[in-house]
């Protein structure tokens, strides 16, 4: 399998344009198109739906895209490992991220550290929670950022952020709509117990939400399907398939139907932590980042 063909596919998935992708990849459009066709033949199905007006990912393409990204990221990691072997003084921090971590917020949080440590290269890798645990244990990342869970009990941690959780009612469920809640403008977790909740997979959010229901002695009604993305969960709620609960940063800006979610003690929140490799913390530049995150 040709790595350039994987790069072509990733570029088209991002731009949804064969011509712009060819420019970005510095190849002719026929070269890019032929490379993607060869990749599709090897994988066994089309990655893209092509019409004269638009390019879209097929359902198969949506499933394959994270794996394509994973392969290309692994190649980058391999090159980085080789660089560190030949240049052991090279200072690198490898941060694994749950998809829940708002990247704009993280970039702002790291800005001062980057300015004070220009020689330190910071590398992000977005993974599901199980993969983050494996990578932290085998040393391919130096820290993971995710909701609290089993990893937090085995490694040093830093508290990063608490983000408000919002409830997006199932369309056509008037008893929990933003209009019928009136002046209250919020919904208690208990009020949502009868709603089928659409959950996402792998990022740690589902486990946290299920834990909130258990802590309140409630049984969550889980929607039988599972969304692959936060956008899908929001869309499904708007289509009336079920309700969903998402952090504020993961809802589209123009969504006015979401309601703050309340617990008896106050607003429901999703905490995010940095979980550190004890071995990595022995390196000065990584312990300096922990000190920065602990105090900024």
From TrEMBL:
GO cellular component: cytosol
Pfam families according to UniProt: HTH_1, LysR_substrate
Name recorded for this polypeptide: Putative transcriptional regulator, LysR family
Organism: Magnetococcus massalia (strain MO-1)
Stretches assigned to the HTH lysR-type domain: 1-58
The keyword DNA damage is annotated on this UniProt entry: no
GO molecular function, one term: DNA-binding transcription factor activity
Family from the record: Belongs to the LysR transcriptional regulatory family.
Native organism taxonomy: Bacteria, Pseudomonadati, Pseudomonadota, Magnetococcia, Magnetococcales
Top-level taxonomic group: Bacteria
Keywords of the record: DNA-binding, Transcription, Transcription regulation
Protein's UniProt keywords contain Transcription regulation: yes
Family matches, as InterPro entries: HTH-type_LysR_regulators, LysR_HTH_N, LysR_subst-bd, WH-like_DNA-bd_sf, WH_DNA-bd_sf
PANTHER family given in the database record: HTH-TYPE TRANSCRIPTIONAL REGULATOR YBHD
Coiled-coil residue windows: none
Positions of transmembrane segments: none
